[in-house]
Specification:
heterodimer; A: about 55 residues; mainly alpha; B: about 200 residues; two-stranded antiparallel ribbon
């Protein structure tokens, strides 16, 4: 004998909401801006690089 | 050579770029004096689009910082990816004129680089981002790079006759590419050099 569901079926949108609510939050935490030390490179070297990085003919 | 205040290689770059006027001067310097350096043509830039690029870039930076970084500053690849993206979407380069600088007599007697004439804006956008990334990655202190690798990164360039340059320019000019894709693209150029 067929059983009658005791509650109306959820709509597609409601199901999607449920899936997203129950999905665990992503644990990915992007790294922020790393610290730099400008003294790692000499000023002369840095100044000599003020040109295009992509070389063209 | 004297270091320009609008060079990519400086510790306060991202703070400075948030200032609208500084951003405009930076873009102008980079297009006119770096990307089109020693070219017989000279870029004509649109103040309107530079202003718009700044508005969009700074808005995105604030949004992504809040949503993904819990309010912290983005990493340098993301900053550069968004900058390249918005310089591409809001193209500052609106025309080319004859280079008025006659310091180098040979300039006016040769043709401009075809790729700069065809794809000048996207070329500049990508090149600026690449130079930002190579400086920041090579000077970061949280990764124990050897001095040799730091020098290699700082001097990273894309060689002449590279299929990569044409692919990048064509893709940026003709296809859709997101700031997040550009972030990954920049990062992938350096990741193999990590210890």
């Amino acid at each position: 004998m067929p059983t009658t569901p005791d509650r109306p079926e959820a709509s597609g949108a409601e199901l999607l909401d449920k899936v997203f609510q129950e999905r665990p939050r992503a644990s990915y935490q992007p790294n922020g801006l790393p610290p730099i030390d400008e003294s790692i490179h000499s000023a002369e070297v840095v100044e000599s690089l003020q040109h295009r990085a992509m070389q063209v003919e | 050579m004297v270091a320009s205040p609008y060079a990519c290689e400086q510790t306060k770059l991202f703070e400075n770029l948030l200032d609208k006027d500084w951003f405009a001067e930076f873009v102008s310097y980079q297009y006119k004096h770096v990307v089109f350096e020693l070219e017989p043509v000279f870029p004509i830039l649109s103040d309107y689009w530079i202003s718009h690029a700044h508005y969009r870039w700074s808005k995105d930076i604030a949004l992504v910082s809040k949503k993904e970084y819990e309010g912290r500053p983005l990493d340098h690849f993301k900053y550069a990816g968004f900058l390249c993206y918005w310089l591409r979407r809001c193209p500052p380069l609106c025309g080319l004129s004859t280079n008025p600088d006659t310091t180098f007599a040979g300039i006016k007697h040769r043709d401009p680089k075809p790729i700069l004439v065809q794809y000048g804006n996207v070329f500049a956008a990508f090149d600026i981002g690449l130079r930002i990334c190579r400086y920041w990655e090579s000077a970061r202190t949280d990764i124990n790079y050897s001095p040799e690798i730091r020098q290699k990164m700082l001097r990273l360039s894309i060689p002449q006759r590279s299929e990569y340059i044409e692919d990048v320019c064509y893709t940026l000019a003709e296809k859709n590419i997101s700031p997040h894709s550009l972030n990954m693209l920049y990062k992938s150029l350096f990741i193999a050099l990590r210890p």
